[in-house]
Specification:
The complex is a heterodimer of chains A (538) and B (112). With 538 residues, chain A is α+β, with helices and mostly antiparallel strands. Chain A contains 21 helices and seven strands. Chain A folds into three domains: 173 residues, no CATH class; 146 residues, no CATH class; 143 residues, no CATH class. Chain A has a seven-stranded antiparallel beta sheet. The longest helix of chain A has 37 residues. The radius of gyration of chain A is 27 Å and the shape is globular. Chain B is mainly α. Chain B has one domain. Chain B is built from five helices and no strands. The longest helix of chain B has 30 residues. The termini of chain B are far apart. The chains are: A alpha+beta (538), B mainly alpha (112). Chains A and B meet through helix 1, helix 6, helix 9, helix 10 and helix 11 of A and helix 3 and helix 4 of B.
Chain lengths: 538, 112
């Protein structure tokens, strides 16, 4: 019975993993890139200055308010975001529900501005790292209603694959130290196990927390049963769960209180560089309400303390702690761990490496699926299965091809003309067109050739990015390294490293292919059926 | 019925249906539905039960229920594929769902 249980789990693991494996691979690659989203932003807009973290909050707020007065009169909400850490290199203002008839430039807006001049930055249009990272849950071309459920399903499959993977893995620690290279399926299985176990806490965390981001949408009956249906019920729920204030506009004008004393109060309490948002509800109204929000990146708890002020008198009305209850803490910690906004350089690199391990876990799993079936098909000697051949031929393009496609996204950023109106969209189109063409190439070639070729392409595409940067900006390694401009230098060095890793993989594959061919020439008799049974259940 | 099958394999609609019923493909399809749809329903019902049962403020209890719901879903899927037969898998899911629904209903009745 116990053996049967593990076997049924092995079956579940294989199929749960494969069916959405390609979607998961895409999510892992783009999501991993997201841990360096603002650094990628910077590389994709080399015209931008270095991050403006040192500007006093009072000055940024004053600048933001004077800009918003001009651009967004009558807005329901003005927010000024401070450039306190790597997550926000520059000040930003956004607004909602402004009145275009009384002179607002748009009902809603979201703009960065220079901390010293208040001017918008002049830089090429780009989707940047934000667009790349957003793909891991938006899947870009799909409508939101479809992508939400597809990634939910994929993530749920992943959770089941991880759980069943742990169950079938009876010698989890012993296998962790086991790697038998050059043994075909066995080696792939070992690699898959090592990659999975090495970052297992990360994989479990990232999967479970991924579901929590849209948990209320995924579990709709819970709200319906406890709060009822309809928008009002939803409103009540949001207030109770996330403790948001409800302030109505009075319609009676009143001038906004000076922000300086409010910010002083906040900085006395939190210290400098912690105030993240100045959130003004109904500016210019009798009922104006100001929330000063502390950084949500001080630790894994993805929320900060809030100070609530009367927006006219400037009186402190309420202090909302970062954590309001234990369940609320669990919730925000899961989200905080997923996004890793709090991570400093070392932890951020660990996040990135864990993401790469996860990418490798899904990638090796996809390969393992075909290797195992190939051996079974050869043992039966009944010719290969059509589905198997298709998966075998698609995999190199899906896996290595996607890496090249991400590099193509960066190439497009530098090669599309700056004045080209739709360059932002075409950066992404370039990425997916590259992927699509590499998939076609991959299907057209035998897998044994395709794998090293595709990795060689990825190696060239990544390793030459610093060279591209040298020719298309004045922010190349020769400048960024001496200046200690780490976001830019780090990008160039990282893609160079990725290129070298891809080149190494390609080289290893070629070497292995050659030794296999030699082996086959020497051994003229057909290979006997390999040891079975024990291998199929790991 | 089984005797008839052994004598004349593949003859008649009844026999074919009977064979299809016992085919592994149908069992797997049935389990997949039990896992995805049944597991989803059970996860929601389990979360609702927690939201009603836990002695906390409503908002907190709802958050706890929703946080737990994905673990319930995973456990349900594991159960469905570990059960000895598709029928047992369904019975387990439906039984658990019925218990959740019943307890929730009783609790809501008791609270009112």
């Amino acid at each position: 019975m116990k053996e049967g249980f593990r076997q049924s789990m092995a079956w579940l693991h294989t199929w749960a993993g494969l069916i959405l494996g390609w979607v998961l691979f895409f999510m892992f690659v783009t999501g991993t890139a997201g841990y360096f989203d603002t650094e990628i932003d910077r590389w994709m807009q080399p015209e931008l200055p270095v991050a403006q973290h040192d500007t006093p909050a009072v000055d940024v707020a004053a600048m933001g308010v004077s800009l918003l007065r001009e651009e967004a009169p009558g807005a329901a909400r003005w927010v000024i975001a401070m450039p306190i850490d790597r997550n926000d290199p520059y000040p930003r203002r956004f607004w909602q529900g402004a009145d275009t008839e009384s002179g607002a430039i748009a009902a809603n807006g979201n703009e960065r501005f220079d901390a010293s001049s208040g001017e918008p930055f002049s830089a090429r249009a780009t989707g940047g790292g934000q667009h790349l990272y957003r793909m891991h849950w938006r899947l870009h071309y799909l409508p939101r209603s479809l992508s939400d459920w597809l990634i939910g399903l994929a993530t749920m499959f992943m959770l089941v694959a991880i759980t069943s993977g742990i169950i079938i893995h009876k010698k989890i620690f012993k296998d962790f130290f086991t790697f038998r290279p050059g043994k075909g399926q066995r080696s792939w299985l070992d690699a898959h196990n090592v990659l999975s176990v090495l970052a297992l806490p990360f994989h479990v965390m990232i999967t479970y927390s991924g579901l929590i981001f849209m948990a209320f949408a995924y579990m709709p009956l819970v709200i319906a049963a406890t709060y009822g249906t309809g928008p009002e019920a939803r409103q009540t729920m949001i207030q109770e769960v996330f403790s948001l204030p409800v302030v109505e506009r009075s319609g009676e004008p009143a001038s906004l209180t000076a922000l300086g004393p409010l910010i002083d109060t906040a900085e006395e309490r939190w210290g400098p560089g912690v105030l993240r948002h100045v959130d003004i509800h109904h500016p210019g109204d009798r009922n104006a309400y100001i929330i000063l929000r502390a950084s949500h990146a001080q630790g894994p708890v993805r929320s900060g303390e809030e100070l609530h002020f009367d927006g006219v008198s400037g009186e402190l009305i309420d202090t909302i702690p970062a954590i309001t209850s234990a369940p609320n803490a669990a919730w925000t910690v899961l989200l905080g761990l997923h996004e890793g906004l709090f991570a400093g350089p070392v932890l951020r690199w660990l996040y990135f490496l864990s993401g790469i391990l996860g990418t490798g876990m899904v990638g090796t799993g996809l390969v393992l699926w075909t290797v195992k079936r190939r051996q079974q098909a050869e043992r039966r000697a009944s010719g290969s299965h059509r589905g198997l051949v298709l998966v075998e031929r698609l995999n190199p393009g899906m896996v290595a091809g996607l890496l090249t496609a991400v590099a193509a996204y960066f190439w497009a950023n530098r090669l599309l003309p700056v004045e080209f109106a739709q360059r932002e969209a075409w950066e992404v189109h370039s990425m997916f067109l590259t992927w699509f063409m590499l998939l076609i190439l991959s299907v057209a070639r035998p897998p044994a050739r395709s794998w090293p070729e595709q990795f060689a392409l990825a190696a060239v595409a990544f390793a030459l990015l610093p060279v591209l940067n040298l020719f298309t900006s004045d922010r190349h390694l020769g400048r960024s390294l001496p200046a200690g401009d780490w976001p830019l230098a780090g990008f160039d060095l990282t893609v160079l490293g990725l290129g070298l890793v891809c080149a190494w993989v390609s080289y290893r594959l070629v070497v292995r292919q050659r030794s296999k061919l030699k082996h086959r020439r020497n051994v003229t008799t057909p290979t006997p059926g390999r040891a079975s049974g024990a291998e199929s259940s790991s | 019925m089984t005797d008839m099958l052994q004598e004349q394999p593949g003859v008649g609609i009844g026999a074919r249906l009977c064979r299809a019923w016992h085919s592994p493909a149908l069992g797997i399809a049935s389990r997949v539905i039990a896992a995805i749809v049944g597991g989803f329903a059970l996860a929601n019902l389990g979360a609702i039960l927690l939201a009603v049962l836990l002695p906390m403020a409503r908002g907190e209890a709802v958050v706890t229920g929703v946080l737990a719901s994905f673990a319930i879903y995973t456990a349900a899927v594991i159960w469905v594929f570990a059960a000895r037969s598709a029928v047992r898998a369904w019975l387990g899911i439906l039984g658990a769902a019925a218990i959740c629904a019943l307890v929730t209903w009783l609790l809501i009745g008791a609270l009112q």
